[in-house]
From TrEMBL:
Organism, scientific name: Bacillus methanolicus PB1
GO BP terms: phosphorelay signal transduction system
Claim: Phosphoprotein is one of the keywords in the record: yes
Name listed for the protein in its UniProt record: CheY-like receiver domain-containing protein
Keyword list, A-Z: Phosphoprotein
Pfam families: Response_reg
Source superkingdom: Bacteria
Keyword Phosphoprotein on entry: yes
Span of domain Response regulatory: 3-118
Modified residue annotations for 4-aspartylphosphate: D53
Amino acid sequence: MARILIVDDAKFMRITLSNILKKANHEVVGEGENGKDAIELYRQLNPDLVTMDITMPEMSGIEAVREIKKEFPQAKVIMCSAMGQQKMVVEAIEAGAKDFIVKPFDEARVLDAINRVLN
């Protein structure tokens, strides 16, 4: 199964995602609260996949994806967005994200996106 890094400024969202992933036998290797955390943790942990919130303090998910992809072109990132953030989702995909999932998280959709991106 995959080694996954979860990045979201809301602890509740990190816990929710973590529970979904662990139930599907994935390993959550780290958690970050903003884009800067995401870049640092990616360098340290080299995860198979990152789930990244779009809107976060200090550095947005989109900026973080750009930075991570610059340094690690093979990085696999799935963006997490709230409803109504279509424009930002498009921007995130252009920045290098592989897929996106919408909050509130639907377990089947989350796992489907992860399987698609990993395969």
